Amino acid sequence: MYKLIILVLSRNKIYILPMNIFVSNISFKVREQSLKDLFSQYGEVSNVRIIRDKESRRSKGYGFIEMPDDKQGETAIEALNGFEHFERKLVVAEAKGKRDESAPATDAD
């Protein structure tokens, strides 16, 4: 199987976009730091976002994790899909759709 690595070239800068991981069935008690700690066991975590209701600010029970290294992200997905966290079995998969293009740039010489 071939894996597509997305690079964005712009004015002598290369943007390597992180793997975006979708996590659902998150307990309403869980905070971003708890998810970061959990996923950090498998590699570097660059961003954690739990989706919240705009009015009540209550968790909607799902969120996204960004990991810069795809191999570490795949390992985390395999290890944590179905993992019981705060008495709920997490559903973990690579997020569908385009990757976040706000990744930090590196100089290309």
Explain the layout of strands and helices.
Layout: E1 7-10, E2 13-16, E3 19-24, H1 32-40, E4 47-52, E5 59-67, H2 70-80, E6 84-85, E7 88-89, E8 91-94, E9 105-107
What overall form do the CA principal axes indicate? globular
Low-confidence stretches: 99-109
Based on CA atoms alone, the radius of gyration comes out at 15 Å
Distance between the termini: 31 Å
The third-level CATH topology is Alpha-Beta Plaits
Amount of beta strand: 35-45%
What is the count of helical runs?
2
Give the tally of structural domains. Answer: 1
Order of helices and strands: EEEHEEHEEEE
The count of strands amounts to 9
Q: Which class best fits the helix and strand makeup?
A: alpha+beta
Instruction: Profile the largest sheet.
Output: 4 strands, antiparallel
Could you give the order of strands across the largest sheet? 4-5-3-8
Percentage of residues in helical conformation: 10-25%
Architecture overview:
A four-stranded antiparallel beta sheet has the order 4-5-3-8, covered by helices on one side. A hairpin with a 6-residue loop joins strand 4 (47-52) and strand 5 (59-67). With 109 residues, it is of the alpha+beta class. It has one domain (7-107): RRM (RNA recognition motif) domain (Alpha-Beta Plaits), CATH 3.30.70.330. It is built from two helices and nine strands.
List keywords for this structure.
37% strand, 109 residues, Alpha-Beta Plaits, 18% helix, four-stranded antiparallel beta sheet
Give a short summary of the structure.
The chain is of the alpha+beta class and 109 residues long. It has helices spanning 32-40, 70-80, and strands at 7-10, 13-16, 19-24, 47-52, 59-67, 84-85, 88-89, 91-94, 105-107.
